[in-house]
Amino acid sequence: MATKVFVTGGTGFVGANLVRLLLERGYAVRALVRPQSDLANLRGLEVEIVQGDLTDANLSEQLRGCQVLFHVAAHYSLWRSQRQALYDSNVLGTRRILAAARQAGIERTVYTSSVAAIGVPPGGEIADETYQSPVEKLIGDYKKSKYLAEQEAHQAVAAGQDIVIVNPSTPIGPWDAKPTPTGEIILRFLRREMPFYLDTGLNLIHVRDVVEGHLLALERGRTGDRYILGHQNLSLKDLLQQLADLTGLPAPWGTLPVWIPLSVAWVDECLLAPLGKPPSVPLDGVQMAQQRMYYNPAKAVRELGLPQTPIRTALQEAVDWFLQHGYVKSAVQSSSLPRPKG
User: Computed from CA positions of residues 301, 168, 198, 192, in that sequence, does the dihedral angle turn out positive or negative?
Assistant: First the structure.
């Protein structure tokens, strides 16, 4: 009989790619899906859907019969008004699902943390798994909640559970339906809505390599260890230039002084949001962008065999997926874009 795995967050970007890879490799998949979730990313797949939430009292019953848990689900938001939802979902939700996994007899768990939980070293250094920013130095409640959620996993390991922690950096590729903040950058580029950019940097990785890293962590990861699932450190300028090279569209003109989005974000979140106006720019997001968020994935490459697909390939596949699914039609008809170069 096929190994049965339980996946949380299966309708999301990483989760949908993980479910596809699990099915390709012969696993039987049961996915926890909230009643209000959009199931488009799972449509047509042979997946057992279980409707529920991380707050459900019967989580252990929903897990029963599975041997493996991939806890991918997380609440992502940079809005300060979402503070409580972040801690409820990411910290308390992780505590609940790990407790339920123990009760249900799950043999091994792969917990999806984030490089956000690791933080950024001072002076623009490149971080690996041995680095940890003090929690008070992490910018924003999303990063803090992911750090605290990771501590829940460590505590569960100390209590005897077999858990491996993976810390994806910034994935790029197909099935970014929501889309993610990086997917939004690609879309704004395609729609010609990005004349300027902030001088920041990210570690990027093909989403297919991220989900391959999840399976490799299941097979080879050491209990209680964390593994950065990343690949290439790139400035935002270099990322946009690669998109320009792929599509034939012009790169943005230049950098935007950080005081402009900082001012807009402060007014939005501190003055207008309390009056009921939806904010447009998250203050935490602008503050994060002032740092170069660079990471070293050498441990995952060495110990797990994490693949390192060229970022150009990931960008190409992301562009193709957005075009094929009509994401640029609101501003530019996809037929009017240059055909992506091979």
Answer: positive
